[in-house]
Amino acid sequence: MQILRYTAFSADPDGGNPAGVVLDAAGADEAQMLEVAAEVGYSETAFLTARDDGEFDVRYFSPLAEVPFCGHATIATAVAHAERHGPGRLVFQAPVGRVRVDTRLSEGRLVATLTSVEPRRAELSDADLDELLAALGWQRSELDPSLPPGVAFAGNWHPIVAVARRERLATLDYDFPRLADLMAARDWTTVDLVHRESTTVFHSRNPFPPGGVVEDPATGAAAAALGGYLRDLAAVQPPLTVTVHQGEDMGRPGILTVEIPATGGIRVSGTAVSID
Known about the structure:
By secondary structure, the chain is an alpha+beta fold. It is built from six helices and 17 strands. The radius of gyration is 17 Å and the shape is globular.
């Protein structure tokens, strides 16, 4: 297998979220994919296999386990494919379902847009919220009352917790084992911690203990889940495009563009660049 390395949601190799990309994983089994993902060491590596119908099977692995969907690795894979075969539409058959990805040239750069599976939202119990906040070292009084905590899905399940002040995100320092245990028990992928700067601008941080890393720098799946959460809460008036800034506090800034239509999947866009 040829293993590529790209960073997604940034045009700077030092920004965004790095992902491993294998554009031809034909014949590789699960053990081999996991071994490669562990060797690459990024939060996820995507493995693409062409199908007879012109679509692609895709699987995503963290260094520890397979994950149903990964947004930043999808963006990275689509850009890597477009660099070699030209921009256009790809259809990925992922473990979570069918994901359409469109690539186009914009101001001399390739931009990829994924359309998520149908988003959903669930309540976050008081007990789970208390345990989550305890692991983070946060207080309920620090939360944004206009965006109640919840759990959202657009390929993976993510608790979404909004804080009133941007400074609270900058001081993230959490109990890794405690949060890891809670997330494993609830099958959460990352925790999407957000601050709403304005109607169309958000800041985000994503602890990622299930992937074996403290924090994910730019999380496309969580951004899609956030879009669905905002729509379901009627916290925005679709159609609307919002910008999510993530990775700034890690020194790996990334920008995720989230299009929220009135119905259907959420569209998440970004560029990617090789870091080989």
